[in-house]
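INTERNAL AUDIT FORM
Audit reference: QA-55
Scope: verify that the stored structure record matches its stored sequence.
Auditor: D.O.
Record contents follow.
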Amino acid sequence: AQAAAKLGMAATIFHWGLHPWAIYAIVALALALFSFNKGLPLSIRSIFYPLLGERVWGWPGHLVDILAVFATLFGLATSLGVGAEQALAGLNHLFGMPLTDTSKVLLIVGITGIALLSVLAGLDKGVKVLSEINMGLALLLLGFIIVVGPTLAIFTGFFSNLAAYATYLPELSNPFGRADANFTQGWTAFYWAWWISWSPFVGMFIARVSRGRTVREFLISVLLVPSLVSVLWMTAFGGTAIGQFVTEGFAGVKDAALELKLFAMLAHLPLSEITSFIGIVLVIVFFVT
């Protein structure tokens, strides 16, 4: 069980830690270089100037930007689908909202409507305010899990999970040689495609907010800090769920459907109705922002 837990956390960090942030950093750093240092527009086509030359202003450049837009759309669609499934499962868990296709469509329409209002309100009044509220709620929930969950195991797990990640990294880095097709397709291939589809949007956002930073500051802020925060988040939530099963024999998370696992874990802790509601809000508002 301990070996399986270590491999599970190592695989989680592999798919949610340094690697996706590295994908974003490559796009963001290239955009920042060509936009701020070379005076080109903040557009994906600018990255291809060394390859295409002046043709980036013609149809090859248009094609690059169109592909970037479609990649972003597909990334958004995936996130909205996964997020709506999880939010609806939470609403069903808390309030008995029916798990029907109609409910999913209504929830997606509602989330899209909130996103539209947020954009119309502008960056400072809409997106910024929602983002600050969401980050506050996320830190509150993380702090709650650390305090009421297995506190010592979470802090020690943070370092042991990093060690497990380093140990299993060579094996995880060659997933397509593995016999477990469900893992390679359901995890590695899916996540890599998801991160890459988000990279034009996230890369442009990171480049835009990084003006005036040195490359060293940029890499620390984009690679190390988010990766370590992600490891802490996964250790707190994943470690608590694993501890519930291994230490306490609670099989609720193990037996729950994928989109219900968060709420099953929270149900085994105090104030579960409040924390589950915060979880639903976080899923929705993270997507909106």
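Auditor finding: record pair retrieved intact. The chain is about 80% helix and 0% strand.
Action required: none
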